[in-house]
Amino acid sequence: MSYLLNLDLISVGLTVASIGILGFIVFFSRPKSITSKAFLLFSIVTIFYGIVNYLSYQASNRELTLFLLRLVIFSAVWHAYSFYLLFTVFPEDDHKLSKRFWFIITPVVAITSILTLTPLIFSGITEIIAPGEVAQVTKGPGILLFVIVVALLIIGGIWILVRKMRNGDKLEQKQFRVIFWGVFLTFACIVTFNFLLPIFAENVRFIAFGALFMLPFTGFTFYAIAKHELLQVKVVSTEIVTFILAVVSIIELIVAPDITTIVFRSGVFIMILIFGILLIKSVIKEVKQREKLEELSRELAGANDRLRVLDQQKSEFLSIASHQLRSPLTAIKGYSSMILEGSFGKLEAKMKEAIERIFLSSERLVIVIEDFLNISRIEQGRMQYDFASVDMAELVDGVMKELEQNAKRAGLTFTFNKKDTGPFVITADFGKVRQVVTNIVDNAIKYTPKGSITVTLDRDADTRKVLLSVTDTGIGISRETLPTLFQKFVRAKGASKVSTSGTGLGLYVVKELMKAHKGQVWVDSPGEGKGSTFYLEFMAE
Ligand code: ADP
Hints:
Layout: H1 2-29, H2 34-56, H3 62-89, H4 99-115, E1 122-125, E2 137-139, H5 143-167, H6 170-200, H7 210-226, H8 230-254, H9 259-340, H10 349-379, E3 388-391, H11 392-409, E4 413-418, E5 425-428, H12 430-446, E6 452-460, E7 465-472, H13 495-498, H14 506-516, E8 520-524, E9 532-539
Parallel strand pairs: 4-6
Antiparallel strand pairs: 1-2, 3-5, 6-7, 7-9, 8-9
Helix pairs in contact: 1-2, 1-7, 1-8, 2-3, 2-7, 3-4, 3-5, 5-6, 6-7, 8-9, 9-10, 10-12, 10-14, 11-12, 12-14
Adenosine-5'-diphosphate binds next to helix 12 and helix 14.
């Protein structure tokens, strides 16, 4: 029996201490918050209830037992009251309590709680009891008021909790769900051990554990409140643990039996103090750094979001502008080509040259605009591919014919060397691959001041790969620039001297389009001024 009695004491003592610690941690983390205050009030009432409830089963004296039992129901009233209050204010820091709360609920609770101390509710004890057993009490008429008030407060509290759970945002709903489970577990314990077991199994042993049943609720609510204030909670928890350690060691010091023990325990006490203070300091430092980091990352996330929006707007603008440019340009290109062909009469040599220039420039502009359009499509993820069988020999032939004029004007030898290893049929989007080849060949013309451009189409019989190479005798590419060439907006240092019209976007588009075709593109150059070769590789059908 005495062993069990001890178990009661230990469990109630530990529960009371834990609830107290949780209450104070929340309170000191945010002393001004009304939710913290309500939680502290609830914890204190719970502790009081736990202690008197425990004592009431230990006392053997009739009067004392009756008095303690009255204190139990006295605290039960305030318990229900603080439960109701907690959910009225949770999770706010500032909450103006209603007039109804101050002028109706609180006075009714106060009066009921005073009545619990009078014979109106518990009038006496019928049976003499031994310590550790439950006394039978005779109930007065006031018990009805007590039951109604407590039931209304608890139902009201749960009602508010459920309503907030439904209306809250996602995070709040999560918090409320945690609390709800706490309430549920606590009620399940109380119903099982205080009602079901005593009534059906006549086992009253567990009623004395009252405080223990409050632990799930207090713990879950603590978690829900503290989750917001995790960093502060860390500091306060460290402080409280250090404080408790210091108090324990000072008590040990006071009850020390002899001088050696005093010296030893003083040493322990001083060490606890020093290490405790160091620990608190380091936790505060860590918390501050974490807070700073969190703030920085929040700012960064904000800046990132703004950038993303800006980037999107840029892509949209690019797309709209390019579309607007395309149709007038098609007209310029079409009409200049017709003039050159003589559709509007014979041309003088001087005029012909001017029109030729118009035609060639507009042709280059078409490539650039097509690149712009492709970039915005790629970036907005709305690039669409129409895959079909494409004969590369035919495609390259078309590009060569289109760009022949440009090469001729630049005084370049322009050859298409088609090996007899064909057929060169691949699965591809004709328009996109044409854009890729046009870009590479046009670059070769742009960056070759004199000499030749040789385009070679070949197929490897073993690997079934179709390889197109475009070799020029132009300005070449330095070792350092080579790996960066396919990135957006990258132009080699000397490029603008040879061609001012470049954007640095063409090769990026080429790379992206080749990726979509599961093909490869790469470049090789012996160095600046020594020409370069671009390679495009596709899988044959
Ligand atoms: P753009 O030609 O509009 O500048 P590209 O993306 O097509 O943009 O090309 C990027 C850069 O690669 C060019 O600015 C140039 O420096 C280099 N480049 C491309 N093709 C050649 C080439 N055939 N010979 C030498 N450099 C080249």
